[in-house]
Amino acid sequence: MIATTVPDVATAAGTAASAWAATPHHHRARALDGIAAALEDDVTGIVEVAAAETSLGRDRITSELARTTFQLRLFADLVREGAHLRTVVSRADPQAPVAPRPDLRRTLVPIGPVAVFAAGNFPLAFSVAGTDTASALAAGCPVVVKVNPGHPRTSDRVARLVTVALRDAGAPDGVFAIVHGFAAGAELVSHPAISAATFTGSVRGGRALFDLAAARPVPIPFFGELGSLNSLTVTAAAARDRGAEIAADLAASVLLGGGQFCTKPGLVLLPRTPEGARVETELARLVAAAPAVILLDDHVHDGFAASCRALEADDRVRLLAAGGVAAGAATPALYAVEGAPLPDVALEECFGPAVVVASYADDAELLTLAGGLPGALTATVHSQAEDSDLLTRLVATLAPRVGRLVFDQYPTGVAVDPAMQHGGPYPSSTDPRFGSVGTAAIDRFLRPIAYQNAPPSILPRELQN
Amino acid sequence: MIATTVPDVATAAGTAASAWAATPHHHRARALDGIAAALEDDVTGIVEVAAAETSLGRDRITSELARTTFQLRLFADLVREGAHLRTVVSRADPQAPVAPRPDLRRTLVPIGPVAVFAAGNFPLAFSVAGTDTASALAAGCPVVVKVNPGHPRTSDRVARLVTVALRDAGAPDGVFAIVHGFAAGAELVSHPAISAATFTGSVRGGRALFDLAAARPVPIPFFGELGSLNSLTVTAAAARDRGAEIAADLAASVLLGGGQFCTKPGLVLLPRTPEGARVETELARLVAAAPAVILLDDHVHDGFAASCRALEADDRVRLLAAGGVAAGAATPALYAVEGAPLPDVALEECFGPAVVVASYADDAELLTLAGGLPGALTATVHSQAEDSDLLTRLVATLAPRVGRLVFDQYPTGVAVDPAMQHGGPYPSSTDPRFGSVGTAAIDRFLRPIAYQNAPPSILPRELQN
C-alpha cells in the first residue's frame, strides 16, 4: 500500500493549489490526456489486479476502464474549449440604469483542494482516476483520494500511473495523492487545506462525513451520493401491452452487476390487475432462477443481508421469490407489499440483488404512493399513449423527488453526457444542485470571481478582449 | 405587524411549490413586473415609512427603491429569456462512445420553498422584495421572508404590496409570506417544507442558522452572507502619485451610509513611506472631521461599539482619529497597526464607520499581510503602471481569498449585473460558489433534472424540439 499521512498530502495539496490553478488550461488538458494514455498502456495490468481483488470480472473491468479513459479525455476537451467557465464581460457604462457600471468581467476559478472518497462499486470509473478526480483536476483543483477499502491494490496501481503522468505533464508536486484507511477519511474532510469533498457510498457513512464538513470552522461543500430507491412505475396499460418484456428487462436491470448500482430500481409500483399480477409472477420466476452472487466485499455483503432481514421482519412485507444460494454469496430476492402508505423499510435503498414490488389499486393510490417516495437519483415510468393524463400527474409528483426521469427504459446505465444529471434530492445526494456524471460534474469545483476595472495584464486569458 | 406562524406559512409555501413551479415563465415574469409596478405606485408611502423607522434618509431610500424595482424587472426579463436554464439536448445516439446514448434533455427546476432572512442595512433592496425574494420567485420557488427587526413597518407595507401583486398576477396562494420575530428564524430554517435559505447579517447569527440548516434530517443549502473585511491595498507608487485623491475617495467609501455596507473597506494596507504616511494623515483628518452617525438600530450600534472596544483593547492597535460625538450616535474612527502578522481583531469586520490602517515595510511584508487575510467579498488594489510585477503577485495572493477584485476603484457600490460576483470565501459567504447580487443570484435556487426518452407531451417547453 502507498503509505502517506493526511497532514502531509493535504498540506502538499494546499501548497500545489495556486500553481495548478495558474496552469494554462491546455496544459491541464494535456495532463488529463496523459493519465488516460497511461491507464490504457497498463490495461492488462490494471484488469488483472482489479479482477483479482473484486468480484466484477474482466469484461466489466475492461469496459469500465474504457469509460474511465473516455471521461478523462472528455474533461480534457471541456477544459480546452473553456465554455464551462461561463465568462461574462460587461464593459463600463456610465449610463447604466440605477448607477454607472464599471468594467466587470466574471469567470470561474478552482475552489481549492478536493477530497475524493472513492466508490466501492466502480473500482475505476468512480475511484482513484474516476470522474470526481478527472473533473476536479480539470477544474484546477488538487485531489487527495481516500481509497476505497474494497480495491486497495487497484487503487495503488492507478495512483502510481496518475502520479507519473501528472509529473510528466509538468504538474506541480502535491497536486495528486491517495490515502488509505477509515480514520484517514474523517481526518481528510476536517483538514483545513481541503476545500471540498466528494463521496459515493452509504447514507450512514456519507452523512457522518457531511456533518464533519459542515461543522468545520470553515465549512466546505460536501457532495455525497448516498442511497437511492429508484422507483419504477408500470401503468395498467403498460402491464397489459408489454408486461412480459418489462418483467424481463426489469429483472435484468435489477440483477445487473449484482444489483450494486446506485441507479438499480429498488421499488416497482405495479397495478393490482391480472396483467400486473402476471408481471409480478414473471419477475418472481426470473429472480428465483437467478444464481447467487458474490458481492463487492464483506461490508456490502453484510449490508445487503441486514437490509433483507429488515424487509423480512416487517409484517406487511412478503418474500415472493429467492434465487440461488451459495456460501459467502448473496441470494437474489423479490419482496412484495400492498398499498399506501408503504412501510419505511420499503422506502430505503437495499444495495444488492433485491427489489420490492408494491401494488396499487388505482391511479389515486398510485399517486399517493408516488407522493410518499423519498428523494432519489431517478424515477422511471412505463406507460402507453392512452396514459397521457395519468403520466402528466405522475411526472408532476415524481419530478420534485428526483434528478432524472426515465420513460419506457431503465435507470441503470448512466450516459456520460452533458445532458445527464446524476444527483437528486436527499438522501440520494447531499446537494441536488450538482451531479457526479458527465461534464456538469466540473461545476462542483468552481466558484465565480469578478474583476472590476482590471488592467489587461492581470486578467485571465478568457476575460481578455 | 402582519401576524403569521411559521408552520402555517411554511406549509402553505410547500403546498404552493408545485403550482408556482408549473407556472409558465412569462406568467412568473409578469408577476415580478407587477410587484415592481406596485412598489413604484406606492413610492411616497414606502419612503415615508422607511425613512421614519430607519436612519437612512429619504434620498437613500428613494434610490434604493429604484434599485429594488430594477432588480425585480431584471429577473422578469431573465425568466422571459430563459438562458438561465442552461438547457442541453442530446439526441439518442446508438453509436455514442462507450455506450449507446438515449435521448437525454437537461434543464433546471426550482429547488422548492426558500426562507429569506432580510438584511438590516438595505430595507428595500435586500429585504422583503429584494434580490433574494426576486431571484427565488423568478426561479419558481415560493418565498417566506423572515423580516428584519430594524424595519418592521416597511416590511409589512412591502409585503402587502407583494401579496396583492402576486394574487393579481394569478400566483397560487402561499407563494409568498413574511414572519416576524427572532424565534421564527430558527423555526423557519428547520421547517421540513423549506428547501433553501438565504441570510445577510452577522457571522454569529448566520453561522447559527447555517448549523441548523446542515443539521436537519434533510439538510438544505444555506446562502449566508456574513462578515467581510474588504482589504484595500495602496502601493508605494500609488501613494506617491495619487495619495491625496485616494485618501479622499477611500474616506468617502468607508463613511458611505455610516460604514454599514458589507463591502465597506475595513483594512487599508499602506506603505511605510513618507507618501504612505501622508495618506494616513489625510485619512485621519477626514475621519476626525466626520460627524457622528446614527446607525441602523440598537443592535448595530452595540455591535459597532463592541468592535471598537475590542480594537482599542489590543496593545498593538492605536486610535489615530475619532470623529464627532453625539448621544446615541456612533463616532467614526481610524485605527492603525504595524506589520505582519496582524492581530486577529484587525482581521474581523467592524460593521460601521471605522477602518484600520496597517502599514507594511516592503513588498515582501505586503505579500505576507495579504496572505494572512480571511475570506472576503472583495479586495481592492490601487497601483501604478510600474507596479506590474508586484500587482501580479498580489493578485495571485488575493484572488483565492475573495469573490471580486477591484482595481483603482472602491468596493462599495455593487453593480447589479450578470458579471457581478457578490459572494466570497468564508466567512464572507457560507458558499462561495454563489452570489446574491445580479442575475447569477438565481442559480442558488435551481437544480438540474434530466429527462430520458421522454414523450414530447411531458417535456417542459424549453426542452421540446
Q: Could you characterize the architecture of this molecule?
A:
Chain A is an alpha/beta fold. Chain A folds into 2 domains: 6-226 and 429-463, Aldehyde Dehydrogenase, Chain A, domain 1, CATH 3.40.605.10; 231-407, 3-Layer(aba) Sandwich (Aldehyde Dehydrogenase, Chain A, domain 2), CATH 3.40.309. The radius of gyration of chain A is 24 Å and the shape is globular. In chain A, 59% of the residues are buried. Chain A has a 7-stranded mixed sheet with strand order 10-11-12-9-8-13-14, with helices on both faces. A 5-stranded parallel sheet of chain A has the order 5-4-3-6-7, with helices on both faces. A 3-stranded antiparallel sheet of chain A has the order 1-2-15, with no helix packed on it. In chain A, strand 4 (143-146), helix 6 (152-168) and strand 5 form a beta-alpha-beta unit. The first copy, chain A, starts with 5 loop residues before the first helix and ends in a 13-residue tail after the last strand. In chain A, 40% of the residues lie in helices and 17% in strands. Chain A has helices at residues 6-22, 25-41, 43-53, 58-81, 131-139, 152-168, 182-190, 203-215, 236-255, 274-288, 298-313, 363-371, 388-398, and strands at 88-90, 104-110, 114-117, 143-146, 176-179, 196-200, 222-225, 231-234, 267-271, 318-322, 333-338, 354-360, 376-382, 402-407, 446-452. In chain A, helix 9 runs parallel beside helix 10 (274-288) and helix 12 packs parallel to helix 13. The first copy, chain A, contains 13 helices and 15 strands. Chains A and B meet through helix 1, helix 4, strand 1, strand 2 and helix 8 of A and helix 1, helix 4, strand 1, strand 2 and helix 8 of B. Strand 15 (446-452) of chain A pairs parallel with strand 14 (402-407) of chain B.
